[in-house]
Write a structure and sequence with these properties.
GH; glycosidase; 42% helix; three-stranded mixed beta sheet; binds 2-acetamido-2-deoxy-beta-D-glucopyranose; Beta-glucosidase; globular
C-alpha cells in the first residue's frame, strides 16, 4: 500500500471507530450470551419510611436534620416511598425486561442498634418480600450489603468507620444478611464505593460525619490527610473478615459470589508529557488501586507507600493473607473521565500538592477545551471512550478479573429543567448508547465484563444534592410520588427486547 492508501484506510478505521462510539447501532446482541442487564438503586435513596416498623435513625437521617447540609434542604424521610410501593416498583423493573436488579439493605432497618441490639424481624420481612417477588418474576437480585447508610448509634458510640470496632459491626451485619437472605442471593456486594464515600465524608467533609481539614474544607473537626486512609483501611478489613466468613460458612452451601463496588473515575493525562502520564497512573492507583490492590494482591499500591510513607496503615501478614484474592468480581461504577496533571514537578492547586492526592491535580479542561459535555452534576462529564479505557485498565492491572458495571448513568438538574419536558430525555438515551458501545468494544477486545446496570430506576435522593439531580429512567412527581417513564425507560425496554422478539412472543 502506498502512503495515500494507508492514510485512506486509517481514515476509514477512524470513521468506523467514531461511528460505533456514537452508539447508534448498539444492540443487545452485541453483548455475549448470559450478559446481565439491570438497574441499580440503594436503600436510603428510595425507601423512605425512616422510622417505620422498627428502623432506627441512621447517619443520613441525622445529617439531613440540618437542611443546610443538603443542597435543596431535602432528606430521605419519605424519599420515593419505595418501602410502601416496592411491589409497583418491581413490576416496573420487570416491565423493562431486565435480567437483574441491584439494591441495598438498610443497616438501620435490620439492625437498628447494630451489634448492640436485636435483629428487627420487620426489616428481614421487608427484604424477604422483595427477594421473593424478584425471584418469582425471574429477576436476579444483586444485593449491596452496605451502601453509605448505617445506624447513627455506631457513630455516637465510637465514631463509626474511624474505629476498628466498626469492622465488628460490619461483619455482624454482613453475616445477618448471609444467614437470612443467602439462600436466594447469589451476587453479593459488600461495600459500595469505599473510595468515594471516604473522600466525601473524611476529606471534603460533605457527607456525614462531615470531617475534614484545610485546604480541603472547613469542618469543625477532622484531618483530611490521615483519616481517609484509616477509614478505608477499616472498610477493607471489614470486607476481608466478612468474606472469610462467607467462604468458610456459606459459599459452598449457598453458591454465591462476592464483590466490592469501586467508584471508577477514569484519568487521562492532561498533556502528552511523561510526567502527566505518570500522574494519570498515580491518580488511578490512589483512587482505585487503593481499594482493589489490597483485595487482590494483599497490599496497597507501591505508589501510595512511596508518597504516603507511614501515614498509610499496614496490614499484618495474617491480614494480608486473608485479604488477598478476597473478591470474586469487581463492581465498576463508572460515570466520567478527568484529566490528571502532575503536581510533583509543576505548580498546582493547594490540594493537588498534597501527598494524600498522590500529587495529582484533577482538571476538566485541556487547552481551554472541556473534556466532555457537562451533565447536571458539573463533574460528571460525558466521555464515552472513558468506559473502554477504564475497563482496559482494570483488565490489565487485575489480570482480567470478572467485572460487572454496577452503575452508569446521566443526570440533568431538575431545577434548570422546569421549562423542558423532563420526560423527553434524549441526552440520557444518547449517553447510555454511547457508553454501552464503548463497553461492547472493551468486551470484544477480551475484557471479562458480565453485566451492566443503569443508575437508576427512578429519580431519587442523591445524597448532598438532594432531589436536584435526576438520574432516573422514571420521573417521580415529588407531590404525588407517581412514577412516570421517561423516553429513556422506553429506549431501555426496546434495547432489551427488540420489537421483533416482543411481537413474536405476543
Ligand atoms: C475555608 O474558609 C476560608 C475562610 O473563610 C476560605 O477562604 C476558604 O476558601 C474555605 N475553604 C474551603 C475549602 O471551603
Ligand atoms: C521531577 O522532580 C523530581 C523530584 O524533584 C526530580 O528528581 C526529577 O528529575 C524531575 N523530573 C523532571 C522531568 O523534571
Amino acid at each position: 500500500m502506498n502512503d495515500i492508501m494507508i492514510g485512506f484506510v486509517l481514515l476509514l478505521l477512524l470513521v468506523a471507530a467514531q461511528a460505533s462510539i456514537n452508539g447508534d447501532t448498539i444492540k443487545r446482541s452485541d453483548f455475549p450470551d448470559g450478559f446481565l442487564f439491570g438497574v441499580s438503586t440503594s436503600a436510603y435513596q428510595i425507601e423512605g419510611a425512616y422510622l417505620e416498623d422498627g428502623k432506627s435513625v441512621n447517619n443520613w437521617d441525622a445529617f439531613s436534620l440540618s437542611p443546610s447540609n443538603i443542597e435543596d434542604g431535602g432528606n430521605g424521610f419519605v424519599a420515593d416511598d419505595h418501602y410502601h410501593r416496592y411491589l409497583e416498583d418491581i413490576e416496573t423493573i420487570q416491565s423493562l425486561g431486565v435480567d437483574a436488579y441491584r439494591f441495598s439493605i438498610s443497616w438501620a432497618r435490620i439492625l437498628p442498634r447494630g451489634r448492640f441490639g436485636e435483629v428487627n424481624p420487620n426489616g428481614i420481612l421487608f427484604y424477604n418480600k422483595i427477594l421473593n417477588d424478584l425471584l418469582l418474576r425471574g429477576i436476579t437480585p444483586f444485593v449491596t450489603i452496605y451502601h453509605f447508610d448505617f445506624p447513627q448509634e455506631l457513630q455516637e458510640r465510637y465514631g463509626s468507620w474511624l474505629s476498628p470496632l466498626m469492622q465488628e459491626d460490619y461483619v455482624h451485619f454482613a453475616e445477618t444478611c448471609f444467614k437470612n437472605f443467602g439462600d436466594r442471593v447469589k451476587h453479593w456486594i459488600t461495600i459500595n464505593e469505599p473510595n468515594l464515600f471516604t473522600q466525601m465524608a473524611y476529606k471534603n467533609g460533605k457527607y456525614p460525619p462531615a470531617r475534614c481539614s484545610p485546604p480541603f474544607g472547613n469542618c469543625s473537626a477532622g484531618n483530611s490527610d490521615v483519616e481517609p486512609l484509616i477509614v478505608v483501611h477499616n472498610m477493607l478489613l471489614a470486607h476481608g473478615k466478612a468474606m472469610k466468613i462467607y467462604r468458610r460458612n456459606y459459599q459452598q452451601k449457598q453458591g454465591g459470589i462476592v464483590g466490592i463496588v469501586v467508584d471508577c473515575l477514569m484519568y487521562e493525562p492532561l498533556t502528552d508529557n511523561d510526567l502527566d502520564q505518570e500522574a494519570a497512573n498515580r491518580g488511578l492507583a490512589f483512587y482505585i488501586g487503593w481499594v482493589l490492590d489490597p483485595l487482590i494482591f494483599g497490599d496497597y499500591p507501591s505508589e501510595m507507600r512511596q508518597y504516603l510513607g507511614n501515614q498509610l496503615p499496614r496490614f499484618s501478614s495474617a491480614e494480608s493473607n486473608f485479604m488477598k484474592d478476597g473478591i470474586d468480581f469487581i463492581g465498576v461504577n463508572h460515570y466520567t473521565t478527568a484529566y490528571a496533571k502532575d503536581c510533583i514537578n509543576s505548580t498546582c492547586s493547594l490540594t493537588g500538592n498534597r501527598a494524600i492526592n498522590g500529587f495529582v491535580d484533577t482538571t476538566r479542561e485541556r487547552d481551554g477545551i472541556p473534556i466532555g459535555e457537562p451533565t447536571g452534576i458539573e463533574v460528571l462529564r460525558v466521555v464515552p471512550r472513558g468506559m473502554r479505557e477504564m475497563i482496559e485498565y482494570l483488565k490489565k492491572r487485575y489480570d482480567n478479573k470478572p467485572m460487572f458495571v454496577t452503575e452508569n448513568g446521566y443526570s440533568e438538574p431538575l431545577a434548570e429543567n422546569e421549562n423542558q419536558n423532563v420526560l423527553q430525555d434524549n441526552k440520557r438515551v444518547e449517553y447510555h448508547k454511547m457508553y454501552l458501545s464503548s463497553l461492547a468494544q472493551a468486551i470484544s477486545d477480551g475484557a471479562d465484563v458480565r453485566g451492566y446496570f443503569v443508575w437508576t430506576l427512578m429519580d431519587d435522593f442523591e445524597w448532598v444534592h438532594g432531589y436536584l439531580p435526576t438520574f432516573g429512567l422514571h420521573y417521580v412527581d415529588r407531590e404525588t410520588l407517581n412514577r412516570i417513564p421517561k423516553l429513556s425507560a422506553k429506549w431501555y425496554q426496546d434495547f432489551l427486547n427488540p420489537r421483533y422478539i416482543r411481537e413474536y412472543i405476543s
